[in-house]
Amino acid sequence: MKIIYEIFIILSYLICQPLRIFSTKINLFFKGRNDSFKVLEQEVDPSNNNIWIHVSSLGEFEIAKPIIDSLKSKIDNLKIIITFFSPSGFENSKNYKNADSKVYLPLDTSRNAKKFIQIVNPKIAVFVKNDIWSNYITFLKKNNSIIYSISSKYRKSQFYFKFFGYWFLNKLKQIDFFFVQDENSKNVLEKHLISNVIVSGDSRFTSVLKTLKSNKEISKIERFINSKKCFIAGSIWESDIKLMDETIKNKIEKSIIAPHDISPKFIDQLENLFAKNSVRLSCLKSEDDFKRKILIIDSIGVLKYIYKYGYVSYVGGGMSNNGLHNILEPAVFSCPVIIGNNYKGYNEAEDLIKLGGAFTVKDAEEFSKIFTKLNDSEKNRQRSGEANLNYIIKNAEKNSLVLKSLIENLH
Fold first, then answer.
1. Which of 123, 173, 246, 384 lies 20 to 30 Å from 190 when distance is taken between CA atoms?
2. Do 119 and 225 have their domain in common?
3. Which domain holds residue 262?
4. CA angle 306, 310, 314 (to 5 degrees)
5. Residues 6+ apart with CB under 8 A from 405
6. Is residue 322 part of a domain?
7. Do strands 230-236 and 358-360 pair parallel, antiparallel, or not at all (unpaired)?
8. 137 and 249 inside one domain
9. Domain with 251 in it: what CATH number?
10. What is the number of alpha carbons within 13 Å of residue 131 lying toward its C-beta?
11. How far is residue 286's CA from residue 15's CA, in Å, rounded to a whole number?
12. Residue 170 lies in a domain
């Protein structure tokens, strides 16, 4: 199986090379890895107290950040190396200061994994969520490194637990500590004789509470809203826009739209859709600009702070197969959240729908009804918002378990 796995990794690499011509993201995926070892050799001393944290993309990076920040503040001599699988994580980490080294993860071949572990020599390795790589685990064990899987989630339908996934299941069994999101994940792992499992939730709960406490004010946004009710649509895709465009045009005084894709093409598409009613954040300057109904966010990194100004919010990704984006970011501001109907497997969405803090819709008609119900009734809006914040506070308490264990093993 090991040979088949190696061949699959190499073939995937070769087959995807021509796609670099057509996709900036794929090109960054490969180009970014060209210098990974060079950067590591310049920035990392294997004799230091090193911890390696691997994240797949931006969402996993957001999970890791509160843990990294806490470790840096509590352990003086700690060196933190972060690796990324995709460009969405790495490209948005460039201004992050609490990592001593940040690189794309070299592809998971035996040669790469061996070289990486020799250079980094991590005392602890942390895989965030389910982005776990077999060859890296092999050489981490040979290096006597302690391996963590945090914020992970397991279901009995996953390939690890099928007859053909036995080799990968044995790799999971080499992980020292699992800090999983829910009881079901713990039950699945224990059924397969993995006993070192603790339910600690998702560290995004801690992260969004930190955003809430920062209470960051954005004067441009406040001036644009001008004390009016504001609807915020975050991380939206084209399929999400189809739900809400008529409601935004006809029923809302002020709206802020933050697309997941901030490419010029999609921003232009949004501007054409809303015509003279809209303005980009980067172009928000004149008095007439501030009087417009719709503000389009054309930059990354501000959305989580903008949600504080929302009366009702919508979070994208649930109307397609792109994956539901982070609903905890608006929820922490006691803001009701509307999402598409493709949310299964997202614990926080399933929980908040049951609690009445989030609402799922399948089409524009349902969106209009739910929005009106929340927008026209302060009682309904406040009840939903309180359910959201209370849920986050309760779950954030579990996050300290991961940090406590890491600190114990790093000293």
1. 123
2. no
3. 210-396
4. 95
5. 148, 177, 179, 198
6. yes
7. unpaired
8. no
9. 3.40.50.2000
10. 21
11. 50
12. no
| Phi, then psi, of 384 in degrees rounded to 5 | -65, -45
**Could you tell me which residues come within 8 angstroms of residue 224 by beta carbon, excluding any fewer than 6 positions away?**
254, 256, 284, 290, 295
Handedness of CA 151, 157, 162, 165 (dihedral sign): negative
The two three-digit tokens of residue 106, written as one number? 């070299």
Same domain, 304 and 374: yes
Rounded distance between C-alpha atoms, residue 35 and residue 208, angstroms: 33
Looking at the domain assignment, is residue 71 inside a domain?
yes
Residue type, 203: S
* 115: its two tokens: 């070289």
Whether residues 18 and 123 fall in one domain: yes
Does 69 share its domain with 214?
no
- CATH number for the domain including 23? 3.40.50.20
Q: Two tokens at 16?
A: 């995807």
End position of a domain, from candidates 110, 129, 152: 152
Return the structure tokens found at 162: 């099928």
Domain membership flag for residue 46: yes
Strands (E), 90-139: 101-104, 124-128
Q: Which two tokens stand for residue 287?
A: 């008095």
In sequence order, the 6+-apart residues with CB closer than 8 A to the CB of 330 are: 232, 234, 307, 310, 313, 315, 337, 388
Residue after which a domain boundary falls, among 152, 167, 202 = 152
Q: Tally the domains of the chain.
A: 2
C-alpha–C-alpha distance, residues 371 and 227, integer Å: 19
Six-digit token string for 53: 């944290």
Same-domain pairing of 216 and 143: no
Tens of pLDDT along the chain (411 residues) come to 778 888 788 888 777 777 777 777 777 777 778 899 999 999 999 999 999 999 998 889 988 998 999 999 999 999 999 999 988 888 888 889 999 999 999 999 999 999 999 999 999 999 999 999 999 999 999 999 999 999 999 999 998 998 888 889 999 999 999 999 889 999 999 999 999 999 998 878 988 998 999 999 999 999 999 999 999 999 999 999 989 988 998 889 999 999 998 888 999 999 999 988 999 999 999 999 999 999 999 998 899 999 999 999 999 999 988 889 999 999 999 999 999 999 998 889 999 999 999 999 999 999 999 999 999 999 999 999 999 999 999 888 877 889 999 999 998
